[in-house]
């Protein structure tokens, strides 16, 4: 009887945890290794993913020519405003070959103010991270491992999504 109750409790806990995952977000059974991709900032400084160790990162791979990417950018900016800080960052990584200038014009055009600019004009990061569609977003833990991913656009400022991400930031 005790084993039955424990089994039911375990099932119920896993069902409740699964219900908390936003639609389309695939959580891995065990965290996955993430390649240390490189990119540049607005001012041309070189960075890589290892620079974000110790923080939870929502890595969004996007491009200005991708219509769904363009539509979700304001929600990523709002998410950064809500959760951003020393323990969490939305890393919006543009793979625009035209570079930071085109990304800056887009940021200015739609009023992106909270997201920092990161650009990979080589597009090698998308290949290394297995981002076969845009946008692709990876949730990365403080140790630099992928917890899960979502392929396609999302409403990142939706209360359900914020609550889901907040549990990883704590």
Automatic annotation (TrEMBL):
One of its GO terms (biological process) is cytochrome complex assembly. Residues 28-170 form the Thioredoxin domain. The keyword Ligase does not apply. Transmembrane segments: none annotated. GO terms for molecular function: disulfide oxidoreductase activity; isomerase activity. CDD domains: TlpA_like_family (cd02966). Keywords: Cytochrome c-type biogenesis, Isomerase, Redox-active center, Signal. Gene3D superfamilies: Glutaredoxin. One of its GO terms (cellular component) is cell envelope. The keyword Signal applies. It is found in: Cell envelope. It holds the Pfam family Redoxin. It comes from the Bacteria. Residues 1-19 form the signal peptide. Its main location: other. PANTHER family: PROTEIN DIPZ, THIOL:DISULFIDE INTERCHANGE PROTEIN DSBE. This is Thiol-disulfide isomerase or thioredoxin.
């Amino acid at each position: 009887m005790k084993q039955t109750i424990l089994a039911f409790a375990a099932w119920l806990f896993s069902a409740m945890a699964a219900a908390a995952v936003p639609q389309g977000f695939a959580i891995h059974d065990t965290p996955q290794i993430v390649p240390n991709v490189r990119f540049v900032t607005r001012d041309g400084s070189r960075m890589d993913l290892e620079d974000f160790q110790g923080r939870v990162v929502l890595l969004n791979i996007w491009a200005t020519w991708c219509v769904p990417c363009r539509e979700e950018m304001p929600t990523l900016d709002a998410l950064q405003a809500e959760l951003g800080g020393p323990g969490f960052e939305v890393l919006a990584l543009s793979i625009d070959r035209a570079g930071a200038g085109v990304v800056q014009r887009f940021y200015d055009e739609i009023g992106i103010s909270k997201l920092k600019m990161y650009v990979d004009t080589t597009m090698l990061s998308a290949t290394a991270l297995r981002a076969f569609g845009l946008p692709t977003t990876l949730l990365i833990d403080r140790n630099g491992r992928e917890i899960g991913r979502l392929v396609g656009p999302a409403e990142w400022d939706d209360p359900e999504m914020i609550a889901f991400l907040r549990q990883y930031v704590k």
